[in-house]
């Protein structure tokens, strides 16, 4: 009889399972930690990763995972070992374990979410077949063209690249604070190049907030590295890829064949045995925070990962997050300085000037004008000169609400505490929270008034307005002005975004209306005017990060204008950023006018420090969803009480705010409540959450809390 060895497996348990997060199975041989296996779970067979006894994991204390099976139970056997794939490296498992612990999830959940979905579906035989043709990379390398000559670095790029190459003595993360158009990407390319040249096994991870928006970045990396390392050396990882594509990229990274992984937040979990350098571009971007399931911050995990791997990390932005800005403050006699090293590239390439910012005081403009006369004149001039303009409004649809002036009826969503947005193109009312869609009613459903009116503006309306306003305006070739719109509605079908961006790049579009989708990252060469027509809305929110977010967005948007100094000169034109506001004295706009991120950040940080807000405090949110607000809040109250009764560690250092309804209280007929936790001591907050987790699971199981739909914890939440 063959000996059986007990092995611990991390796997994805059913949601809210109270069982430990690792299960013990029997294997016919000793299995190295990190080995991928298939195991029976209930009546299914699932993917799992062999986990080490000693790996600390997200498991709550008191839930001894190895003994989770009742005594006398026969261990179930591992059904298959995926031995065609090398075990996942220790460093990868440590990252997963850290993420699980920090974000209050299970190792299995994080691990399974980090692996390509196809790995879960394919049988070992199918997988073995997939593994074979992997070798076709060599001819691809030969096929790649000759290397283009490198551009000469600007003096600022040169200095920054040298500093990064010299490294910091204590391997601190670098924050590359560089203006829009200062050539940060070229710096990334050089740093990646240096790492790859230094070590034949070295790998680089380059993260961007939304890879679909940056096909340019992908082609720049391929262009640069394919001639030397082969076309297979650069792979992408993002949710827009098909299952087989993701599996291929993942395997290439895991086997070391891929030298560079370009990806969105999910790529922070790529298996990269040779990881030597990580780049997080646009590090301030909120899309680095996963907002469902395990709510991790890919930027923060990247920093942890770099330290654990001894890899170099570069965070880049023209408008760093206040967290990173604060963490990179220089040392003073009173202050030892931050944990990061700040590098600065203030100038644009080719001495292109940053756009001049023009504030239009809308209280002095004709009532109800969407486009103030001076802005319209400026756009008209641009069209006549053959230059492009970008008009930004962060709200899609025609109008955010329909309204009846007779009885005050509004197009409220019947399932959410939100309005249904009016989409004129297909005459629908759509809820952007739950998706509920209806035909526009012919008359007010409440009083029969046939004149129901759109209230407020969306991108559809802006586009329509512009078409009307520019109908008699001609381009230099006498063709009529062409207006287009890019937002989530116009880019639903695959490839449509790429096609529309290509039109923009080729000059087919004169005026582009868009949401934040078009504001960031793109290297448009012929835009000389960017306008934010109604940015004030963003400041009415009660989120303390609203000002920071708006400043970033506008600064990024401004960064799309005048990126090509040669073009501006040839045109005899200058780049402008127009802002229509009813509050031109607001700190966001005055700082923007002088492109003064540092003083804006300093002012915001002072406010945050006075108010004891992040980055001077650490937060977590506990959210509860139920059919009624009372049930949702009852769970949070009970959770709070349970913590006090149990005198949980860290409780003295953690402040628990009372449960409150969320800003959008009801979505899809579910009432949502939340409770904020805050502490100046990050570790104390962690200790508390860790000890609290099992109590929350126990509470959830009580009959009185049966009406609860779900609960979740969000550590370092971005929106509170
Ligand atoms: P950022 O990411 O800082 O906004 P990019 O990296 O997109 O800026 O660079 C802006 C533009 O300048 C790009 O078109 C890029 O090709 C070009 N560029 C970057 N570095 C140089 C250089 N040293 N010489 C000439 N052009 C450069
Ligand atoms: Zn009415
Ligand atoms: Zn709804």
UniProtKB/TrEMBL annotation:
Entry keywords, A to Z: ATP-binding, DNA replication, DNA-binding, Helicase, Hydrolase, Isomerase, Metal-binding, Nucleotide-binding, Primosome, Zinc
Cofactor(s) essential for the protein: Zn(2+)
Gene3D superfamilies: P-loop containing nucleotide triphosphate hydrolases, PriA, 3(prime) DNA-binding domain
EC number annotated for this UniProt entry: 5.6.2.4
Descriptive protein name: Replication restart protein PriA
Cofactor annotation comment: Binds 2 zinc ions per subunit.
Binding site for Zn(2+) 1: 404, 407, 444, 447
Biological source species: Comamonas endophytica
Positions of Zn(2+) 2 binding: 413, 416, 431, 434
Functional note: Initiates the restart of stalled replication forks, which reloads the replicative helicase on sites other than the origin of replication. Recognizes and binds to abandoned replication forks and remodels them to uncover a helicase loading site. Promotes assembly of the primosome at these replication forks.
Recorded catalytic activity of this chain's protein: ATP + H2O = ADP + phosphate + H(+); Couples ATP hydrolysis with the unwinding of duplex DNA by translocating in the 3'-5' direction
Membrane-spanning ranges: none
Domain annotation Helicase ATP-binding: ranges: 165-338
Family: Belongs to the helicase family. PriA subfamily.
């Amino acid at each position: 009889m063959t000996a059986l060895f007990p092995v611990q497996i991390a796997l994805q348990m059913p949601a809210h399972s109270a069982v430990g997060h690792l299960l013990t199975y029997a294997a016919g041989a000793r299995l190295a930690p990190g080995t991928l296996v298939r195991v029976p779970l209930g009546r299914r067979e699932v993917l799992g990763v062999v986990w080490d006894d000693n790996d600390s994991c997200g498991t709550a204390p008191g839930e001894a995972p190895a003994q989770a099976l009742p005594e006398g139970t026969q261990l179930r056997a591992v059904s298959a070992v995926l031995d065609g794939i090398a075990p996942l490296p220790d460093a990868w498992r440590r990252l997963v374990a850290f993420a699980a612990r920090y974000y209050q999830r299970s190792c299995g959940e994080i691990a399974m979410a980090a692996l390509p979905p196809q790995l879960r579906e394919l049988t070992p035989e199918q997988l073995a077949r997939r593994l074979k043709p992997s070798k076709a990379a060599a001819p691809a390398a030969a096929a790649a063209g000759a290397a283009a000559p490198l551009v000469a670095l600007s003096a600022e790029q040169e200095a920054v690249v040298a500093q990064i190459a010299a490294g910091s003595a204590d391997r601190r993360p670098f924050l590359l604070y560089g203006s829009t158009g200062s050539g940060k990407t070229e710096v990334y390319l050089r740093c990646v190049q240096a790492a790859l040249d230094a070590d034949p096994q070295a790998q680089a991870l380059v993260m961007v907030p939304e890879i679909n928006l940056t096909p340019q970045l992908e082609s720049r990396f391929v262009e640069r590295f394919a001639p030397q390392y082969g076309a297979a050396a650069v792979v992408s990882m993002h949710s827009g890829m098909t299952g087989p594509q993701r599996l291929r990229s993942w395997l290439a990274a895991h086997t070391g064949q891929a030298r560079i992984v370009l990806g969105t937040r999910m790529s922070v979990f790529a298996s990269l045995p040779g990881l030597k350098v990580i780049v997080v571009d646009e590090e301030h971007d909120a899309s680095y925070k996963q907002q469902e399931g395990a709510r991790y911050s890919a930027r923060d995990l990247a920093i942890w990962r770099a330290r654990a791997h001894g890899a170099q990390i570069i965070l880049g932005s023209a408008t760093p997050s206040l967290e990173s800005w604060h963490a990179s403050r220089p040392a003073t006699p009173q202050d030892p300085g931050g944990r990061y090293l700040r590098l600065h590239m203030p100038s644009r390439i080719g001495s292109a000037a940053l756009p001049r910012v023009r504030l239009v005081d809308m209280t002095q403009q004709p009532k109800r004008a969407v486009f103030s006369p001076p802005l319209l004149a400026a756009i008209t001039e641009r069209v006549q000169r053959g230059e492009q303009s970008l008009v930004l409004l962060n709200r899609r649809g025609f109008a955010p609400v329909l309204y009846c002036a007779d009885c005050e009826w509004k197009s409220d969503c019947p399932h959410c505490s939100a309005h249904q947005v009016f989409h004129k193109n297909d005459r629908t009312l759509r809820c952007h929270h739950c998706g509920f869609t209806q035909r526009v009613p012919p008359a007010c459903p409440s009083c029969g008034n046939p004149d129901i009116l759109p209230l407020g503006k969306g991108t559809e309306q802006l586009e329509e307005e512009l078409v009307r306003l520019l109908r008699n305006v001609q381009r230099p070739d006498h063709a009529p002005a062409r207006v287009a719109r890019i937002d989530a509605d116009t880019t639903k079908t695959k490839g449509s975004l790429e096609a529309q961006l290509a039109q923009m790049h080729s000059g087919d579009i004169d005026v582009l209306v868009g949401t934040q989708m078009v504001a960031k990252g793109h290297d448009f060469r012929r835009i000389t005017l960017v306008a934010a027509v109604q940015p004030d809305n963003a400041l009415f929110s009660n989120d303390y990060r609203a000002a920071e977010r708006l400043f970033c967005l506008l600064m990024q948007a401004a960064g799309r204008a005048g990126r090509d100094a040669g073009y501006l000169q040839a045109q005899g034109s200058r780049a402008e950023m127009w802002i229509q506001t009813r509050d031109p004295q607001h700190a966001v706009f005055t700082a923007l006018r002088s492109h003064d991120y540092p003083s804006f950040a300093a002012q915001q940080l002072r406010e945050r420090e006075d108010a004891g807000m992040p980055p001077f405090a650490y937060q977590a949110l506990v959210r509860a969803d139920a059919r009624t607000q009372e049930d949702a809040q009852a769970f949070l109250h009970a959770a709070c009480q349970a913590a006090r009764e149990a005198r949980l560690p860290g409780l003295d250092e953690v402040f628990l705010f009372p449960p409150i309804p969320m800003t959008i209280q009801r979505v899809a007929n579910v009432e949502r409540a939340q409770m904020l936790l805050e502490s100046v001591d990050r570790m104390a907050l962690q200790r508390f959450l860790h000890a609290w987790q099992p109590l929350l699971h126990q509470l959830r199981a009580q009959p009185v809390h049966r009406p609860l739909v779900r609960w979740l914890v969000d550590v370092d939440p971005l929106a509170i």
